[in-house]
Structures are given as C-alpha cells and as structure tokens.
Design goal:
heterodimer; B: about 270 residues; Alpha-Beta Plaits; about 20% helix; globular
Chain lengths: ~400, ~270
C-alpha cells in the first residue's frame, strides 16, 4: 500500500478558532472552579460524606474510559491489519492522549489536596488498584507517545515491524488500563452496586464506544473540507457498524451485570433502587443510558438511508456520549447513593444518614471542573492538529 | 482550667462538650492523670521491655517514648448493646471533645468519627442501639485501596490516616464497609495538638491512639463507663488474661459484616 502523507489542519475559519476559544474559556472556568473548591473545601460542592465521588469523577472516569477507546482506531490498523483505518491512526493516538490528560486533570484537581500530587507520584501502596492505575495512566501516555513517534517520524515510520510492535504493546496496555479503571469499582466489596468482576469488561466495551464516538465527532468537527475527505462513504459505513456493535456490547454487559445481581436475593434492594424506584438514578439509567444513549442512536443508525450518512453517525455519536455520561453517573453516583448494608435485613437509622438514600446535587464548580476535562482534551487535540501533521492528506 | 479556654483548642462549639472531667491538655495534667491511672490499674513496669499489665476499665499499658509498637498487642473493643442506652450519646460527645471534631450545622458533610446507630427489625419492631466507629480491621479495605499508603494499620491493630500523605482521593471512604470515615469539607480551627486534622483529608476514629500510647483508654470508653451505660470495654485481644479476651471467649459476640472477612477489632454483644 502506498505511504500515507499527513498534513496539518489548514482551517483558519472563525468556527475553528471560535471552538478553540470556547474550549479555552471552559478550561479557565474549570481551573477557577478547582481553585474555588480547593480554597473553600469541598463544602462548596454537592459531594458529602455519603456521596464522596461526584460529578468531577463522572467526567474523569468517562474521559479516561474514552481515552483508551480512542486508541482503538489505531489498533484496528496496526494490530488487526485493517489498512483502511491507518490514515486515522495518528489522530486516534492523539485523541487517546488528550482525553486521558483531560480526565486525569479533573481527577487530580478534585483531590482534597491537589497540591500533594507529588506525593501521589512518589509514595505508593502497591496493593491499591488506584496506585496501579497511576502507573497504567503514565505508562499509557508514554507508550502512545512512542506509538505516535513510530507512526510520524520520517525514519521510524518506515519500519512496519516497529509500528506493529509498539501498536501491539499499546493495544494490550489499553486493555489492562481499562481493566484497572473498571476494577476501581469492581473490587469494592463493601458496596452492593459494585463488587463485580464484570465491571472490567463492561468498562472495556464502554471505552470502545466512547472512544470511537469521540473520534467520529472530532473528524466531523474538523471542518467541511476535511469532513468530505476523511469521512468517505466507506469509512462512514465502517464507523456506523462499529458504533452499533460497541453499543450493543455495552448493552449486553449492562444486562448481564444487572441480571446477575437480580438473581441473588441479597442484591434485590440495590437493583430495585437503580432500576425501579431510585428516582433520578432510575430515570438517568432508563431514559439517559438506555433510551437516549443507546436505543435512539441505534435506531438512527438503522434507518434505511439517513442511517448511512455522516450526519447520522455524528448525531449517534453525540447521543452515545450522552448515554455514556448517564451510564457513568448511575454507576458512580447511584452506586453510592444506596445506603451501605451494615445489618442485612434490619432497618438502621443514625445522625450520619445511615439507612437513607444519600442526597446529591452537583454544584456549578463541580460541573465546570468536569466539563473542563473535555475542553482540555479538545483544546489539546485542536492545537496539536494545527501544529503537527496528524491528518491524512487527501488523495489529489 | 475552664473548658474551651485553652490554647490547644478547648471543647469546641455546638454544645458537644459537657466538660464532664476537665480537659487535660497540659503535660503536667496528662502526666498526673497517667500516674493516677497507672496506680489504679496495676500497670507495673519491671524492666525495659518487660511490662505486666491488667486491663480494667480505667487504663491500658503505656508505651515508652521511642518504643516500637508491638504486634503482640491487638487493641480492640467489646461493646454490649444491651447496656447501650437508646438516647445516650456519651461516647459521641466524649470523642468530639477529645478529638475536636464537631457539628457545624452541615449534617451531610460534618465529620463523625463515632455515631450512634439504632437498628430495628422491620418484622417485629425489636430494636437495639450501638455506637459505630472505625472497626480497626485486621484486613482493612481502606488500607488496601489507599494509593499512597496514608491509610495504614499499626502493628497493634489501630487503623490510622497519615495526614501528611493523604491526598484526599476518598477511595478509602468508598471501600470502608462501615461508613466509618469522614472527609474534612471545611477549613478547621482550634485543633487538638494530639489529634491533627486537615481540610481535604480523610479522618476516622483513632481509637484515641494518643491516649492508648499513654496507657489510658479511649475517651468513648471512659465516658461510657463514667456517664453512659458501661457498655464499652477496651483491651488487648491478644492477651488471653485481659478482661476483653475473657469476655469475648465467654460470651457469644458478633462482629459487624464479619462475612466480608475484614476481621474487625470491635466486637459486639447482644445484637
């Protein structure tokens, strides 16, 4: 196959600069929110001693999951040898780095002591899956950066073996990384909503969906000219198929997760809460994740003619991402809102809200901090495609 | 010395401090108190490293300055729910007073190192009351998950948070089966020098480690004996001759969520 030439983004349109500026403003707002939270304490957030992880974690986990999935397009090209995806590989790797940095930034800025980041980087408890994840994240950034070098350096890119090797390592690493992210929840034995090995494959399936949806949207946003060249009818059809497949996989794992819990009487309480009478959480699950975030975009993709258009996969990608946020919201917030079962079969009350469904309303600073994670990723990607040749040069 | 008037911080606000028993913030007071307690409870140091002790309701064995914490000791509590009054919060108040945490009017974010639970059987309405705090597990999930090792277990079984390396990630709060940990959501003032706390870090019951190291018993146990129902007993679970070991051996006891295999150091009776 002929070598692929890459180019920088030549778009100087007001829309591009406007989007860049918008993201910069959101990043500044997020940093301001983080400073506000750090200065006043988490009392200014909606988080409390019951819901200890809130909206920043929803966005952070969402972005970290998406990051590993964004690498998927590159992996399909290098690991699975599908040459049609190769032109998108550098952009895919760039997005993987950008999304991970965005997610990690949110996670770090939400810490009670963000000033102690150096402690987190130098003092480890190796029994903690969280500590493992710090290595997995840093390793991911390094490996994907090496992968980008192997793809983009004039000399290195000539070596097919190098590209395949680094691409293979990156692929395995991303699977381990998402397993680690899922296990942050899967290994929590005390909380009924978690404590399930299936959290890891569920997160891997979700990563494939979120990552591809982000990639498709970035390709669409890159401008009308690039859109025509980058999103050919053939690739639209391929992305459409993959999006549908990944969404169905997420639905499958979600169904198995809940059915397994429902089968055991022990978990009837938490399942009833999440699926039937959990108020906002039930609504976010059924309306957000299932209807708006899964069934509707799947229906759009299934439409006879419109379903095969660029607009269809773009709209579906937006809906899949909204569904993804809903999914992570229910997992993280809903899972904590249900009270810990200290005395199974008994009713417990206390001054510490034992036995009660916890209240949580996200505050503005939290939402701004979370959104800024997306903007950090988009800003990084936007500046990178402007400065470096990440985009395939269209055939003349 | 009046309660609440000390440089160390006093008893705090919110009516938490009943001043039942003067605060002992000065070294002299603490030393006098220790000597009194030591005499009363037959703590006899024979030679360096050889300590004979018995555990009454008043005191444990002091640890000499610089002496390593020994894993031969396993501090624990035995709580008899039948003696724990439904409306009694002597242990909670004592803990607040001792360690300086307080009710600031934000029930969802205020820390609670110890709390009273009312547990009711929905079938027949039978109920009991008990204090709940860090269960000082032998295999604590909070220690397992802490990325920096800030959550740690001392050799003598006391589970603590190193406030210097806690980054405030709250993963330990996600992992604790007992909801025993609190996150400091607001700036603090009037801290106790022996119970340092910090905005943005996680905290929980220390089993009054500063008192235990001085040979005293935790404040909650002392208060329960003095003004409560005498439901709490502190001692060395590893010492077969200790009162707590004898009672744990003699009576049917329960450890909450023992199914999780965390091996809590807090035993309950009559629940």
């Amino acid at each position: 196959m002929a070598r692929i030439a890459y180019q920088k983004l030549e778009d100087h349109s007001p829309v591009f600069w406007g989007l860049l500026a918008l993201n910069a403003v959101v990043v500044l707002a997020g940093l301001g929110a983080a400073f506000f939270m750090e200065h006043n304490g988490h009392i200014v957030t909606g988080m409390n001693n019951q819901i200890v992880w809130g909206m920043p974690h929803v966005f952070a986990v969402f972005l970290i999951i998406a990051a590993s999935g964004a690498l998927n397009v590159a992996s399909i090209a290098s690991v699975f040898n599908r040459q049609q995806y190769k032109p998108y590989a550098p952009l895919s790797a760039l997005l993987a780095i950008a999304l991970l940095v965005g997610g990690l930034a949110v996670l770090v800025l939400d810490l009670g002591r963000p000033d102690r980041l150096i402690v987190a980087m130098t003092t480890y408890n190796f029994k903690s899956i969280f500590a493992w994840n710090i290595y997995l994240y840093i390793g991911f950034l390094a490996i994907v950066a090496a992968y980008l070098f192997a793809m983009m350096d004039r000399q290195a890119s000539r070596s097919v073996r190098l590209g395949k090797t680094v691409g293979g390592i990156a692929f395995v690493w991303r699977l381990v990384l998402t397993t680690g992210t899922g296990s942050i929840f899967g290994w929590l034995v005390a909380r009924e909503a978690y404590s399930a090995a299936i959290m890891a494959p569920l997160f891997i399936a979700a990563s494939l969906l979120f990552g591809l949806a982000f990639t498709v949207l970035v390709l669409v946003i890159l401008g009308p000219q690039m859109r025509q060249d980058l999103l050919t009818d053939e690739m639209v059809a391929r992305f459409r198929g993959l999006l549908a497949l990944f969404s169905l996989t997420v639905l499958y794992f979600t169904a198995v997760h809940h059915l397994t819990k429902i089968y055991a009487s022990e978990y009837h309480g938490i399942e009833r809460f999440l699926l039937l009478d959990g108020g906002a959480y039930t609504t976010v699950f059924w309306l957000g994740q299932i209807v708006i975030g899964s069934l509707l975009p799947l229906a759009i993709l299934a439409l006879p003619s419109f379903g095969r258009t660029r607009s269809a996969i773009a709209v579906a990608s937006v809906l899949f991402l909204l569904g993804g946020l809903a999914q992570i919201y229910v997992i993280i917030i809903g899972g904590q809102a249900y009270p810990l079962d200290l005395f199974p079969g008994m009713e417990v009350t206390s001054s510490f809200q034992d036995g009660q469904v916890a209240h949580y309303t996200a505050s503005l600073p939290e939402v701004l901090l979370g959104l800024s994670g997306i903007s950090i990723a988009m800003l990084m990607a936007g500046i990178a495609v402007k400065l470096l040749p990440f985009l395939p040069r269209p055939a003349q | 010395m009046s309660c609440g008037a000390k440089s160390g911080g006093g008893c705090g606000s919110g009516g938490a401090c009943g001043c039942a028993g003067e605060r002992r913030d000065t070294v002299d007071d603490a030393r006098r108190d220790f000597l009194r307690g030591a005499a009363a409870t037959a703590v006899t140091t024979l030679a360096a490293g050889v300590t004979l002790y018995s555990f009454g309701a008043e005191s444990a064995a002091a640890r000499a300055p610089g002496e390593e914490v020994s894993s031969k000791v396993r501090w624990g509590l035995l709580i008899d729910a039948s003696k724990c009054g439904d409306g009694c919060t002597a242990c909670v108040t004592a803990c607040q007073t001792e360690n300086g945490w307080r009710d600031t009017g934000h029930p969802e974010t205020d820390p609670q190192w110890i709390r009273k639970l009312t547990v009711e059987n929905p079938i027949n309405g039978a109920s009991f009351s008990l204090p709940m705090m860090c269960q000082h597990c032998a295999d604590p999930p909070c220690v397992d998950v802490c990325p920096t090792g800030a959550s740690f277990k001392r050799a003598d079984g006391i589970v603590l948070v190193d406030k210097h390396i806690c980054i405030g990630c709250r993963y330990c709060m996600m992992a604790c089966p007992y909801k025993a940990r609190s996150f400091v959501h607001e700036p603090l003032e009037d801290q106790k020098p022996y119970a340092p706390r910090g905005k943005g870090t996680v905290e929980s019951c220390t089993l009054c480690v500063h008192r235990v190291d001085e040979g005293r018993i935790p404040a909650c146990v002392e208060a329960c004996n003095d003004t409560g129902g005498g439901a709490m007993l502190f001692g060395d679970l590893n010492d077969p001759s200790s009162e707590i070991s004898k009672r744990v051996a003699a009576y049917r006891t329960t450890r909450i969520r023992s199914d999780l295999g965390c091996e809590p150091g807090v035993y309950y009776r009559n629940i």
